[in-house]
Amino acid sequence: VLIDAGLYRYRINGLSLDYKDQVRRLYPNSCYPSGEWADYQIDVTCSSLLRRYLKPQTAINIEGQQPFNPIRPDKLLPSLEWAMNWCVAAFEHSRLLFHSGVVVKNQQAILFPARSGSGKSTLSTYLGLNGWQLFSDEMAIIELGSTRLQAVFRPTSLKNESISIIRELSPNATISQTATATHKGNIAHVRTNTRAQFDDYKPTMPSAVVFVNFDPNAEQLKIIELDKSVGMSHMLLNQFNYHIVGEAAFDTLVKLVNEVRFFDVVYRNMSDVDEFLTDFVEGRPLD
Amino acid sequence: MRWRAALLNDCSAISVYDLKTTKTHTVAVAYLLKKCLSDVELTPDTLSTYCEAELLQILSELDILQALEKR
């Protein structure tokens, strides 16, 4: 099957009929016959002849490399998503990449740079299901020079308790089967937009970078505006390819830093963050 | 030329990029002004009028680039 994720197209060989169905559900109106042109090729194979019959294991080969350990076949879907992320992180050096969620409203992009486990995917998913355009829950893809953010048509990845939180808040959301006991815990994927909605997304300038911290004991939303030097340093902790892109990455990052405001936000309720960010992009005074 | 430099527009720091190591360093403007006190009259406002070459010259004169080379 060939997945058209907007900026990137992936050819995935070796999927069972069941997984092809799951992929088509997560990528509606975006799957094509695998013979078409693709940016990246991912081959799903059996890890060895013996493993075909005894405790079956599946291996994922990406462009001839095998960056992940073989997995049980029932964990394939998250591994495919990680493989698709890996393709971009490993080979895309014509744009600047950060580990970050990106949402857009009122033609302004908000970035949530953070490592795995920070809650950025849960928050990005929530916002994507509540009126924001979700450009990515995983990667900020920034045009060199212009600093515009690009969107990709990918589902979000939720872990562990985030799955039930989003299922409860958005009972009508398209959520994949949960893959249990992966190395990151239980994983499910969420479709937050239709292909038609995605096709309307335009490259967008950033207006804020928000470092989000979920605290179940926080009594209220806490917002601190940060110096740009602090914001830039924190962003660099989440870079994918800054050191590879080189001088153009420095110029682009400085331009971005000079265009945005930086906030550190501690929250318990995602709706509070939604309200704060909506006020921000709509130009209302911040409390 | 080994270095690039840019003053962040809130005047909190000069960001310095080392083309040789691809590392980015942050030099706080407050630190810079403190180092400069005995030499020249420097304020964030005057700093913001400097071009990149002038920023690099100040960083070099204050031995900051030399220190960054060793990090």
Give a description of the structure.
The complex is a heterodimer of chains A (287) and B (71). Chain A is α+β, with helices and mostly antiparallel strands. Chain A contains nine helices and 17 strands. In chain A, strands 6, 7, 8, 9, 10, 15, 16 and 17 form an eight-stranded mixed sheet that branches. A five-stranded mixed sheet of chain A has the order 3-1-2-4-5, with helices on one face. In chain A, strands 11, 12, 13 and 14 form a four-stranded antiparallel sheet that branches. Chain A is globular and about 60 Å long. By secondary structure, chain B is α+β, with helices and mostly antiparallel strands. Chain B has a three-stranded antiparallel sheet with strand order 1-2-3.
Supply database-style keywords.
heterodimer; A: 287 residues; alpha+beta; five-stranded mixed beta sheet; 17 strands; B: 71 residues; three-stranded antiparallel beta sheet
Q: Biggest chain pair contact, residues each?
A: A-B, 17 and 14 residues
| Relative strand content of chain A | 25-35%
Helix and strand pattern of chain B: EEEHHHH
- In total, the number of strands of chain B is 3
- Global outline of chain B: globular
Share of helix of chain B, binned: 25-40%
Number of helices of chain A: 9
Largest sheet of chain B: 3 strands, antiparallel
Give Rg of chain B in angstroms. Answer: 11 Å
- Tell me roughly what share of residues is in helical segments of chain A: 25-40%
Low-confidence stretches of chain A: none
Mean pLDDT of chain A: 93
Distance between the termini of chain B: 18 Å
Work out the strand percent of chain B: 15-25%
Order of helices and strands of chain A: EEHEEEHEEHEEEEHEEEHEEHHHEH
Unreliable segments of 5+ consecutive residues of chain B:
none
- Quaternary: heterodimer
The DSSP helix count of chain B reads 4
